[in-house]
Design brief:
This protein has 205 residues and is mostly helical. 75% of the residues lie in helices and 0% in strands. It is built from 11 helices and no strands. 26% of the residues are buried.
Length: 205
């Protein structure tokens, strides 16, 4: 009898794990890409000029900056510009691999100059592109503190706040709640779900 009960519990857990995995994969696969209305115009003259050109020309700009960094590896401005061009390239092509390249270039720029406005603001734009609206808000606020007279940071902040507030609360919750309800499994039987929901509740508070 006990063996039968354990077998049922095992199949229950297995079914739950499969459903969770399916929903996570589906959410990644079908989630719409976030496109901020922010433009890089005025954030950096180099990128403002590059963003109005063709993809081929932008590839040339990337190559030029990479060549510059090979000969001058401490040129933080080139890292900042490269990060911005990568981010613009991601917007134009929809290729998410440019997000990691953007992050690496901007982090390198900030390692030389932590208070560089364009790089800090671009980190906010990158977070928006990744749907990390909390992080985007933090970077936007940081950029505003660095230079409250420049407008780009305010756009990052506004986009982050409006995007986060527009999301219905159920979509912010870990989806395991609804999964548990569908198969009649109490959440308290699975501590990992409690940790997940607790993390989101802390964000709301």
């Amino acid at each position: 009898m006990q063996s039968l009960s354990q077998s049922r519990m095992f199949h229950r857990v297995l079914l739950l794990a499969l459903i969770v995995a399916f929903m996570i994969i589906a959410s990644w696969r079908f989630a719409p890409a976030y496109h901020s209305g922010l433009s890089f115009a005025g954030l950096d003259p180099f990128v403002s000029d590059a963003s109005s050109r063709t993809n081929a020309s932008m590839d040339t700009q990337i190559q030029m900056l990479q060549d510059q960094l090979r000969s001058h590896p401490d040129d933080w401005q080139a890292y900042s510009q490269l990060g911005l061009v990568y981010l613009q390239k991601a917007r134009e092509t929809g290729d998410p691999t440019y997000y990691q390249k953007t992050e690496e270039a901007l982090d390198r720029a900030l390692s030389f100059n932590p208070d560089e406005y364009a790089s800090v603001s671009a980190k906010g734009a990158l977070a928006l592109a990744r749907h990390d609206f909390v992080s985007a808000l933090e970077w936007g606020e940081r950029a505003k503190q660095i230079n409250p007279d420049r407008s780009y940071a305010y756009g990052v902040i506004a986009d982050a706040q409006s995007s986060w507030d527009a999301m219905p609360k159920p979509s912010r919750l870990c989806r395991q709640w609804s999964i548990c309800a569908r198969i009649s499994v109490p959440i308290h039987e699975f501590p990992i779900f409690e940790n997940c929901t607790g993390t989101w509740m802390e964000r709301w508070n």
